[in-house]
Write a structure and sequence with these properties.
- This protein is an alpha/beta fold.
- The protein folds into two domains: 4-238, P-loop containing nucleotide triphosphate hydrolases (Rossmann fold), CATH 3.40.50.300; 256-345 and 422-506, P-loop containing nucleotide triphosphate hydrolases (Rossmann fold), CATH 3.40.50.300.
- 33% of the residues lie in helices and 26% in strands.
- A six-stranded mixed β-sheet has the order 6-9-10-3-11-12, sandwiched between helices. A six-stranded mixed β-sheet has the order 18-21-22-15-23-24, sandwiched between helices.
- It starts with a strand and ends with a helix.
- This is ABC transporter ATP-binding protein.
- It holds the Pfam family ABC_tran.
- Keywords: ATP-binding, Nucleotide-binding.
- Residues 6-241, 258-502 form the ABC transporter domain.
Length: 509
């Protein structure tokens, strides 16, 4: 008899002409935490969505508890004891925690919902697995970590024995991630099987028993956690040795290049309004901004770069006030910007690589004569940057939409870095890119700093903040909760500040 509660063999899945999974494979044992890792676009989330029945698979076999399943659907997956917590939570904001958990599976008392029975059942899961949550709060009143616990209780209440977690720590502080790991250990001890999708190798090594690796939609191999290490896993993921820990050069900071004074601006929600923020960035340093997404980082960057109106306060670039100037005027004064969403604000995906690269040079005399763009000069310039920044493929006449996420991001990075501005604002520069592109982009940011440019780095990846920043400020609910030097900072201290603690308290965390 097989000891596997899940077996997926020879799995293929195409979306039109795109092959998302080719010969996918995974075997999960009862009572284990099995990590599924790979670069962005490697096919790991797609594999698990096939297991959960969100898409039909084109070829291959799926077995659950020794039963071969031909036509998987989410309802059938639930009936088979499979539950999935997605990256985007499936919760109704205006309903309470209890109402969300019971929704669609309500215990009945006659024709009405038996909330007393439902509450008692939910309390059992809370007590058994340490899933601390207040059932009468509405979803919009709870933290992201609490919302994740609601999702876990929801699938447990539907009888899940096989639990799929898709990038579960992406939105958590280090403390919340540690709390999640304790919950997963209790689930494992209770005989449940956990499939942990991630790209964070330190977490994979901390929590998993076995690790399966995918690359470019294909299965690479499965290893025991005790018989591998992060370097080997990274090599399996990308096909070559990878160095993510950039050697940080000594700080040689110069004049103040950015001075933000008592800045106030609107927010997408109440906790992201910017309220009285002040800080400085100097030449030759990287100032990192850490914080859980949605605490005002996006609004702050938009206000600095001219994309959002400043209601009060000043933004000064190299001694010159730029508050509420147009984006083009701010760029002309020496600010460059890698936006957090390359598709929305960084690229025109319908245009070619060379057109995106020279977009900021249209009108420059070096690129046009009598208002007519020099095609050859533009392509030559784009070819130089493609070579310098390792944009692949090298054919700059290709449409940008044909590029992978990492190479598309390199187009944005190349264009902005080549401007040689006074300040580079890098907002989530490695979000949604593969591990090879992360290595490249981090090295580029370090070189920009070494050349004397000031860098303002915003990242949801604490490892990235810690590895690159010379100083770090932490944002919580639209304000700065604390500031640390690189030598003072740890993920524990940053996590404490990300939850609203103060610098002096974080020093003892």
């Amino acid at each position: 008899m097989s000891s596997f509660v899940v077996e997926m063999k020879g799995i293929n899945k195409n979306f039109g002409e795109v092959c998302a999974v080719k010969n996918g494979h995974i075997q999960v044992e009862k009572g284990e935490i099995h990590a599924l890792i790979g670069e962005n676009g490697a096919g790991k989330s797609t594999m698990m969505k096939l297991l959960y029945g969100l898409f039909p698979h084109d070829a291959g076999d799926i077995w659950v508890s020794e039963k071969q399943i031909k036509n998987m659907t989410p309802k059938r997956a639930i009936d088979l004891g499979i539950g999935m917590v997605h990256q985007e939570f499936m919760l109704v904001n205006e309903l309470t925690v209890l109402e969300n958990i019971l929704l669609g599976f309500e215990p009945k008392k006659g024709l009405t919902v038996d909330f007393a029975t439902g509450r008692a059942q939910v309390q059992q899961f809370i007590d058994q697995y340490g899933l601390d949550i207040q059932m009468d709060k509405r979803i919009h009143q709870i933290s992201v970590g609490e919302a994740q616990r609601v999702e876990i209780i929801k699938i447990l209440s539907r009888g899940a024995e096989i639990i799929i977690l898709d990038e579960p720590t992406a939105v958590l502080t280090p403390q919340e991630a540690d709390g999640l790991f304790e919950i997963l250990k209790k689930l494992k001890a209770d005989g449940k099987s956990v499939i942990f999708i991630s790209h964070k190798l330190d977490e994979v090594m901390k929590i998993s028993d076995r690790i399966s690796v995918m690359r470019q939609g294909a299965y690479i191999g499965t290893v025991q956690k005790t018989e591998t290490n992060p370097a080997q896993l990274a090599q399996m993921m990308i096909g070559r040795e990878v160095f993510l820990n950039i050697k940080k050069s000594e700080v040689n900071s110069g004049a103040k290049v950015l001075d933000v004074q008592d800045l106030w601006t609107s927010g997408e929600k109440e906790i992201s309004k910017i309220r009285g923020i002040s800080f400085e960035v100097h030449e030759g340093e990287i100032l990192g901004i850490a914080g859980i997404d949605g605490n005002g980082q996006s609004e702050l960057i938009e206000a600095i770069t001219g994309l959002r109106k400043v209601e009060k306060g000043k933004v000064i670039l190299a001694g010159e006030a730029i508050t509420n100037l147009s984006v083009s005027n701010i760029r002309a004064k020496g600010m460059t910007h890698i936006p957090e969403d390359r598709n929305k604000r960084g690229l025109n995906r319908a245009l070619t690589i060379w057109e995106n690269i020279i977009a900021t040079h249209i009108g420059d005399q070096a690129f046009s004569k009598n208002k007519v763009l020099s095609l050859q000069h533009s392509i030559d310039y784009a070819n130089e940057l493609a070579e310098q920044f390792d944009i692949r493929p090298r054919d700059v006449t290709m449409p940008t939409q044909s590029l992978s996420g990492g190479n598309a991001q390199k187009v944005v990075v190349a264009r902005e870095v080549a401007m040689n501005g006074k300040l580079l604002v890098a907002s989530q520069p490695t979000r949604g890119v593969d591990i090879g592109a992360i290595e490249s982009i981090r090295s580029i940011l370090e070189k920009v700093k070494e050349q004397g440019t000031g860098v303002l780095l915003v990242s949801a990846d604490l490892e990235e903040i810690l590895s690159l920043s010379d100083r770090i400020i932490v944002m919580f609910e639209g304000k700065i909760s604390g500031t640390l030097t690189a030598s003072e900072a740890t993920d524990t201290k940053l996590g404490y500040l990300m939850m609203g603690g103060k610098t002096e308290e974080a020093a003892h965390a």
